Amino acid sequence: MKSPTPLTLQFSKSQNRASVGQSQLAPYDQYSSLIGKEFQYRGLITSEIFGTMLVNNIQIIGNCLGKTEDLQNAIQDYASGSFNVAIDVFSGKQVGEFFERTYNAKHRFGKVVYRYD
After folding, report:
1. Hey, where are the domains in the chain?
2. Which end of the chain is more exposed for a tag (fewer CB within 10 A), N or C?
3. What is the full per-residue pLDDT of the chain (117 aa) written as tens digits?
4. Model pTM?
């Protein structure tokens, strides 16, 4: 039987929210070399995390970024002209226009970027 995948859970009881992270290498040592202490995984197994979330009606906010290879493939596809990405770029004093396009444009397609000068 396969062991449950360990996840990390950050919980804010005052906001009734949790953020969950998972690594293919979980538990993943991200900081021990920086603080000079040995890494010890202290997380919960998946069933415990989701049980806690269900009982406490906790909202999950997360993302799925994929693997490094996925990003490399996407960049290679873009560089080779395999697909076009619609990007609206704003800079300088166009801050208001940037926010308007980012949050209020109903028919926006693609990404909106603010470039710092």
Report:
1. 6-60, 68-115
2. N
3. 444 444 555 555 555 554 555 444 345 566 677 777 777 766 677 777 788 888 888 877 776 777 888 888 888 888 898 887 788 999 999 999 999 999 998 888 888 999 998
4. 0.36
